[in-house]
């Protein structure tokens, strides 16, 4: 609103020509600043808003409820590892991150590391592989079932049905599944708003 008002004053009182495109860009930029300031824990980046502003405009006040939707803890006898991968663009420097938590929501293991130059899907798979590797080395692998949660539906699908995996990713999925041998595990999809911590950990290393 303030951006529109300021632009209107410049047109009326300073004789500037109305530039709808510039006005829209300025509004989106202010919206992105506002979203990242209001919900810093949500892992929303300015680029997220600029690239697809409608995702944030349509939520209105309900966005806060979506962000606060609770992460669902695992059952007794299970531990949950949320993982995520982040890459700048279609191929570039990537990061992976994850956090293992128990039914009391206590963080037992956390990682945030570079994935090198990768594509987004490879980063997602590498994050899962790293989580399994760390879990296998831990004390908890002897007594707990591992629940892996990722916000990549394709990663879940390929881990469950490797024959559906496209050729470029077959070797990586096979390597990831090989890492899971000897572990009582299950993988499931989690909405991004329930995977915020892993997302933030991954984005710390995609630079």
From TrEMBL:
Gene3D superfamilies: Ribonuclease H-like superfamily/Ribonuclease H (3.30.420.10). It comes from the Eukaryota. Residues 82-204 form the RNase H type-1 domain. Pfam families: RVT_3. This is RNase H type-1 domain-containing protein.
